[in-house]
TrEMBL record, chain A:
InterPro entries: aa-tRNA-synth_II/BPL/LPL (IPR045864), BPL_LPL_catalytic (IPR004143), Lipoate-ligase_2_inactive (IPR053264). Pfam families: LplA-B_cat. It comes from Chloropicon roscoffensis. Coiled coil: none annotated. Residues 28-210 form the BPL/LPL catalytic domain. This is BPL/LPL catalytic domain-containing protein.
Automatic annotation (TrEMBL), chain B:
Belongs to the GcvH family. The modification N6-lipoyllysine is found at K136. The glycine cleavage system is composed of four proteins: P, T, L and H. Its cofactor is (R)-lipoate. Its main location: mitochondrion. It comes from the Eukaryota. PROSITE patterns: BIOTINYL_LIPOYL, LIPOYL. It comes from Chloropicon roscoffensis. Residues 95-177 form the Lipoyl-binding domain. Pfam families: GCV_H. Binds 1 lipoyl cofactor covalently. GO terms for biological process: glycine decarboxylation via glycine cleavage system; protein lipoylation. This is Glycine cleavage system H protein. Keywords: Lipoyl, Mitochondrion, Transit peptide.
Length: 249, 199
């Protein structure tokens, strides 16, 4: 196990740009400490691309401008999502020691590990699976994943579709490459709302996430945002990478 | 589809990848177009078993198709130095060419994006010099040596898949003018690296 308990940071309606920059700092500047960061809803609707995303391939810029949706490129890999008040973002920022069943930190092994991590949360609510790199009930996606792997620490974050606005989804172009299980389906035909599957409601889901840490015997403690900022400020490292960027539409 | 090629000139066996499942019933196999060259020499390369076993079909001379079980292998090339983090360094005078190993590219999956340092930048041994993206993950890559970047492989910007298809040749990432030769002492030779991958 890591040397300190998991820090659990619970946020609500946090700006996704600020959230991503915070997560990258937690990844790079808190050696020996793992984190579970939960953000319930996003303050301003935003399209978020992965590190290699190209706006012209992935985003209907005109639609995004019309709808008042911003654009951010994040530091992790993966695809493009629209985030808003309906999205629940959960990030695991883990020391390798807290994932001892993954001998070397490579993407596919970590993706499988994450599915096992979330089994206690979702398996009672449907046919929960990992379809390529998405969390699904059956063949319907309710969670998209992305990772960053650095030395003996990794970040795995998920955007859960608690609900979604079909109009905002129109900001996304059909990606050049899609997962095989999508089988050519339109976007709205291959996703589903988590709220339609998770009995107990949104608060129950948010409360269940630390249960996944308990199921693995991982100690955890709630830490507030101000304490986290203080910790990062003391860690210094002004030269740490900050690869998340706002992108003009 | 299972495919392997042997480059006689470099005496390398390219990584066996993808899984071909052969029907074993009745001793026959469903051919999937797989061939493994058996006449190559391995004088200057070793095979490192990957942690998976695959069922493959072999097309033999004469057209007979036979099933057998084989482990996947990654290439480790003699004469290079290797870091625990799966980068290689080829030293030529004061300059080291750097890339990621066959084992690393296999574990990463299909690489879709590469970030490289600027020419003239300083890189530090065991510190990040770039990023590769594969399978929804961005992964740091680490320099085995300290020094000044004198050249980067711009071809990877347009074709990052070279990291997968040619990890030791066309997939090289950067060239560094080494400032501290003692960095090389901390790296593994091919035998030690092979052994570490097999653990």
């Amino acid at each position: 196990m890591g040397s300190a308990p998991f820090g659990v940071l619970r946020l609500s309606r946090h700006c996704v740009y600020d959230l991503l920059r915070l997560e990258e700092q937690l990844l790079r500047k808190t050696p020996g400490r793992s984190w579970l960061v939960v953000n319930d809803g996003v303050k301003e609707p935003t399209v978020v691309m992965g590190i290699s995303g190209k706006k012209e391939d992935l985003v209907d810029s005109e639609a995004a401008r019309r709808k008042g949706v911003g654009l951010v490129k994040r530091f992790t890999g993966g695809g493009t999502v629209v985030l808003d008040e309906n999205s629940i973002l959960v990030s695991l920022i883990c020391e390798a020691a807290d994932a001892p069943d993954v001998p070397e930190l490579f993407p596919r092994a970590l993706m499988r590990w994450s599915k096992d991590f979330y089994d206690p949360v979702f398996s009672a609510h449907g046919d929960f699976g990992l379809s390529e790199t998405d969390y699904t009930f059956g063949d319907l996606k309710f969670g998209g994943n992305a990772q960053y792997i650095s030395k003996r620490k990794f970040l795995h974050h998920t955007s859960f579709l608690w609900d979604y606005d079909p109009q905002r989804m129109k900001c996304l172009l059909h990606p050049p490459k899609e997962p095989e299980y999508r089988q050519g389906r339109g976007h709205l035909d291959f996703i589903c709302r988590l709220r339609d599957h998770y009995g107990g409601g949104r608060e129950a889901f948010l409360g269940s996430l630390t249960g996944a840490l308990d199921a693995r015997g991982l100690e955890w403690e709630d830490i507030g945002l101000e304490a986290v900022r203080s910790m990062l400020s003391q860690a210094g490292g002004a030269g740490a990478l900050q690869s998340t960027k706002r992108v003009p539409l | 589809m299972l495919s392997t090629s042997v480059r006689q000139g470099a005496r390398q066996l390219r990584l066996v990848r993808n899984v071909a499942v052969a029907a074993l019933a009745n001793g026959s196999a469903q051919p999937i177009g797989a061939q493994i060259a058996q006449s190559c020499e391995f004088g200057s390369a070793a095979l490192v078993p990957l942690k998976k076993t695959e069922l493959v079909s072999l097309s033999q001379v004469g057209g007979n198709i036979l099933p057998f079980a084989a482990r996947g292998y990654a290439t480790v090339v003699d004469g290079l130095k290797y870091a625990e983090s799966h980068e290689w360094a080829k030293v030529d005078g004061e300059t080291a060419t750097i890339g990621i190993t066959d084992f690393a590219q296999s574990e990463l999956g299909d690489v879709v994006y590469v970030e490289l340092p600027e020419v003239g930048a300083t890189v530090e041994a065991k510190e990040t010099f770039g990023v590769v993206e594969s399978v929804k993950a961005a992964s740091d890559v680490y320099s085995p040596v300290t020094g000044e970047v004198v050249e980067v492989n711009d071809a990877l910007v347009d074709d990052p898949s070279k990291l997968n298809s040619e990890p030791f040749e066309g997939g090289w990432m950067m060239k560094v003018k080494v400032s501290d030769a003692s960095d090389l002492d901390g790296l593994m030779d091919s035998a030690a690296y092979s052994a570490s991958c097999d653990e």
